[in-house]
Amino acid sequence: MDALKQELKEFIIEQLNLEDVNVEDIENDDPLFGDGLGLDSIDALELIVMLDKNYGIKLTDPKQGKAIFESIDTMAAYITEHRVK
Amino acid sequence: MKQVYINSVASVSAQKTFDNAEFLNDFIDHEAVVFPVVNPNYKVFIPPAAARRMAKGIKMSIAASKIALQESGLDQVDAIITGTGMGCLRDSEKFLSALIDNDEQYLTPTAFIQSTHNTVGGQVALELQCKGYNFTYVHASNSFESALLDAKLLLSNEEENTILVGGVDEIGEHTFKLQALVGHVKKEAVKASELFESHTSGAVYGEGANFFVLSNEKQNSTYAELVGVKMFNTLPKTLLTETLEAFLGSHQLEISDIDVVILGANGDAGYDDYYDILSQGVFKKTQQAYYKHISGEFNTASAFGFWLAAKTIQSQTLPALVKRNNFKSTGFKNVLLYNQYRSENHSFTLLKQC
Question: How many angstroms separate the CA atoms of B197 and B212, rounded?
């Protein structure tokens, strides 16, 4: 699980071009959107595609995203349970 | 019809030009087939949250726009007009590569929405919160001149009073490889200071953003008056001189009235003969200047030439590194720009001291 969390942090920093953010700056329970990391709706689309591409998870209901993408912890838990690759 | 004035200038180029207090004081003698841009500190101009999705062309343009706006003393302009030959090339390459690499699956929106030609105009408008006329001209090496002409017409007719006009192009790695493959780029690195002695085919490429605030009201910071701009998609060599004389004549000027002619020669042995017709012909006894050995060639490099012309008139000095000959001018009142790329998209642009 820790390796997955590390992987998610690295992906978010690289793919979303968070230039001044390091892996150590993101706590596992930090909110990713809003006041936390400050991600927005376009980032949410990037994350949805990442779930499909990297882990074979297709989110059919966009409303699910709000809970799944709450933090690194919630993302890692959902991926661990639903991943097909 | 009102006169049109250049009230401020801003340049992000392969030289340190973003500081308007200087005028080519230090020459960076690049030795390459692509001249890299000297970047300002973009964090001063763009909030980090916005900057993270911006490719080079957008960042250069927003920095140049804000410098131009600040120098003009304005908080806002009536309109934004952008010229770009290739648009946001890096993001175009990014999303097209993703299409191929992922077999048209797993496509994300960011690169696509940032890839269009009018992304720059849109992003500059968002940064400035300008809700006015916003237009982007894409016409190869006449892109900037097209933007300039539109601005001139709008200002002359008093449809707008202040317009931010700019030219921007960025290097895209894949596109550059294609341009090299078809022989548009020099095969070997050339020193900037020796470009015109290379006598080889192809150009040295570059990138940059040059923005200007144009207005129909003169102010203390005014650099020069934009008298005229004329474009030709094709222009036979045999008609070049008489076409130029007709252009000058339409502004009641003759060859002898031109104090310096700024030519867009790029060191390409195959196409610089157009410039030679003028420099060895009617302008044989006129002060001549080149600039693409310091900016590199790109579709809107002529906007850098425009920057050079405006700065020359305002400062009444022509830096030694751009001088092609040494005919002493008593002053720089009328400055003419002539540009073409690979014998297409010719333009004459005329600036006057005011």
Answer: 32
Q: What's the CA gap between B264 and B337, in Å, rounded?
A: 8
As assigned by CATH, the class of the A1-82 domain is mainly alpha
pLDDT (mean) for B141-155: 98
Say what angle helices B89-101 and B173-181 make with each other, to 10 degrees: 90
Mean pLDDT of the B290-300 span: 98
Which residue type occupies B88?
A: C
Per residue in B231-245, pLDDT tens?
999 999 999 999 999
Closest-CA residue to B117 (of B86, B94, B146): B86
Q: Are A1 and A76 in contact (CB under 8 A)?
A: yes
Q: Give the bridge partners for B341, in sequence order.
A: B344
What residue in A sits closest to B103 (Cα-Cα)? A53
How distant, in Å, are the alpha carbons of B216, B253, B292 from that of B2? 6, 19, 32
DSSP single-letter state for residue B232: E
Strands B79-83 and B133-137: parallel
Question: Domain coordinates of chain B in residue numbers?
Answer: 5-215, 225-352
ipTM of the complex: 0.81
Count the Cβ atoms, other than its own, within 10 Å of residue B252. Answer: 8
Torsion sign, CA atoms B169, B174, B178, B180:
positive
* Weakly modelled stretches of chain A, pLDDT under 50: none
Query: 0.90 exceeded by the pTM?
Result: yes
Indicate yes or no: CB of B106 within 8 angstroms of CB of A52: yes
The CATH number assigned to the domain with range B225-352 reads: 3.40.47.10
Cβ contact B337:B309 at 8 Å:
yes
How close does chain B come to A73, measured CA to CA in Å? 23
Distance separating alpha carbons of residues B252 and B134, to the nearest angstrom? 33
The beta-carbon neighbor of B110 closest among A19, A20, A42 is A42
**Assigned CATH class of B5-215:** alpha beta
